[in-house]
Amino acid sequence: MNTKKLIAGNWKMNGCLAANQTLMHELLSGVGQPACDVAVCPPAPYLAQVRQLLAASRVIDLGAQDVSQHEGGAFTGDVSATMLRDFGVRYCLCGHSERRLHQGETDVQVALKVKRALAAGITPIVCVGETLREREEGMTEFIVKRQLSAVIHLNGHCISEIVVAYEPVWAIGTGQTATPAQAQSVHAVLRAQLKAATDQAGRIRILYGGSMNAANAAELLAQPDIDGGLIGGASLKALDFLKIVAAAG
Ligand code: 13P
C-alpha cells in the first residue's frame, strides 16, 4: 500500500482531566514529525479538553469512540456527528466490538453511524472482528464480511472514505495478539471485499487492533495489507504509543 499508515489510540473509558493532560503533554513532546498519521480517541466528555491541548499540534488528530446513528433530537445520551464535528473531531470509531457486545449494536446501526459520520465530514473507523468461538468454528471470514458488507451496502460510493479496523475480539485486551499471518489473511479478505465495491480500495486503510504493543507492532505493520493500528491499552502509556507510532514509519 502507498497510503500513509494511521496509528489511532482508543482510550476507551479511561482517563481524567489530570491524567489526560499528562498523557497529551508526553505525546506532544515526544511525537516529533512522524511518517504516519496519528490520532487519539478520548471519551466524549474529554474531547473539548484534548482538542484544546492539541490546538497547536498539526501532528495528532482527534477521534471519538462512538457517534449516534441519529441526526439529532430526542435521543438522550447520544452525541451526534455534527456535535463531534463542532469539537474538531476528525475520526470516529463505529461498531467497536465492545459496543456491539455491551450495547447490542447491530450491523445496520453501525452502517447508519458510518453514514452520519461521513455526512458530517468525519472519517469513520469501522471496526469488525470475530469472537474466539466464531474463529474456532471457522466463521471468521463470514463474520467480518457480513459486518463490512452492511457498511458498504448503506454507504455506496462513499465507501472509499472510510477506514476499517480488524479487531479480533479474542485479541482485545487479552495480550494474545493475532499472528502477523493470521491478521494479514483477514486483511486480505477485507481488501478483496472493498475492491469488489470500489476501484479506490487500494487507498482505504485497514488497521489491525488487538493487543498491539511496542514489541509486536513492527512485524504486524510490515504486512502488505496492514495499514496501521488501533491501539487500546498501549495507547494510555505515552512511551509505548510513541514506539508504535515510530514502528509505523
Ligand atoms: P487492546 O490494544 O487493549 O487490546 O485494545 C484494542 C482495541 O480494542 C482498540 O480499539
Oligomeric description of these chains = single chain
Please, how many helices? 10
User: Main sheet, how many strands, which sense, barrel?
Assistant: 8 strands, parallel, barrel
Which CATH-level-2 architecture of the domain at 61-232?
Alpha-Beta Barrel
Helical percent range?
Answer: 40-55%
What is the CATH homologous superfamily assignment of the domain at 61-232? Aldolase class I
CATH class of the domain at 61-232: Alpha Beta
Bound heterogens, unique: 1,3-dihydroxyacetonephosphate
**Which structural class do the helices and strands define?**
alpha/beta
Please provide the ordered H/E string of secondary-structure elements.
EHEHEHEHHEHHEHEHEH
Cα-atom Rg, whole angstroms?
17 Å
Description:
- By secondary structure, this protein is α/β, with parallel strands linked by helices.
- It has a domain at 61-232: Aldolase class I (TIM Barrel, Alpha-Beta Barrel), CATH 3.20.20.70.
- Helix content is 41%, strand content 15%.
- It has ten helices and eight strands.
- It has helices at residues 17-30, 47-54, 81-86, 97-102, 107-119, 132-136, 140-155, 180-197, 217-221, 238-247, and strands spanning 6-10, 37-41, 60-64, 91-94, 123-128, 163-166, 206-209, 228-231.
- The protein starts with 5 loop residues before the first strand and ends with a helix.
- The model has no long low-confidence stretch (mean pLDDT 96).
- Bound molecules: 1,3-dihydroxyacetonephosphate (13P).
- The site of 1,3-dihydroxyacetonephosphate has 14 residues, from strand 8.
